Amino acid sequence: MKARIYYGSTIGDTEKVAQTLGKELDAEVVPISQGIKNIENLDLILLGSSTWGYGELQDDWSDKIDNLKEINLSGKKIGVFGTGDQESYSDTFCDSLGIIAEAVRDAGGEIIGMTSKEDYNFIDSKALEDDKLVGLAIDINNQDELTIPRIQDWVDQLKKEI
Ligand SMILES: Cc1cc2nc3c(=O)[nH]c(=O)nc-3n(C[C@H](O)[C@H](O)[C@H](O)COP(=O)(O)O)c2cc1C
């Protein structure tokens, strides 16, 4: 399986998650600032962003999210991941996952790797779909002890869904 991971990260949290995913999946890890290109031969693409402001994409994504809609992602399997803070930003927890997932679907991509919202404690999120999270939500601020197990479970799940 050939996978590539794109990420946007301001203080390094999402980058850390991206690097760990990269090791687990033997995948290239690329900052989103470099743009998404040459994806023809990929079996899996992972897109990661932290959430800033109140429910906004990480800065490096701001001019890339519209580009994403212009790329033809039909036939591509895509997982979304990111970091957020469910205590301080309980109404917008990991909103970026939902924003990116919507853009992926607009571009014809298939989202894989939905996860359970159990074990989190937040009020609302754009990442919520039918009571599930649309991807991997990591909270390094409040639940860092769950970071590695969550990443490992997600990698196992992605390998099954690919
Ligand atoms: C000013 C500010 C705004 C934030 N807004 C949100 C938010 O709306 N939702 C959320 O889940 N986390 C929010 N966070 C938390 C960050 O997403 C979190 O610290 C994350 O781990 C940073 O990851 P990064 O280093 O990859 O950018 C915010 C943090 C700060 C300092």
What this model shows, in words?
- With 162 residues, the chain is an alpha/beta fold.
- It has one domain (3-161): Flavodoxin domain (Rossmann fold, 3-Layer(aba) Sandwich), CATH 3.40.50.
- The chain is built from four helices and eleven strands, in the order E-H-E-E-E-E-H-E-H-E-E-E-E-E-H.
- Strands 1, 2, 3, 6, 7 and 11 form a six-stranded parallel beta sheet that branches. Strands 8-10-9 form a three-stranded antiparallel beta sheet, with no helix packed on it. A two-stranded antiparallel ribbon has the order 4-5.
- Helix 1 (13-25) packs across helix 4 (147-161).
- The model has no long low-confidence stretch (mean pLDDT 97).
- Bound molecules: flavin mononucleotide.
- Flavin mononucleotide binds at residues 9-14, 50-55, 58, 83-85, 89, 92-95, 140-141.
- Flavin mononucleotide is lined by residues 9-14, 50-55, 58, 83-85, 89, 92-95, 140-141.
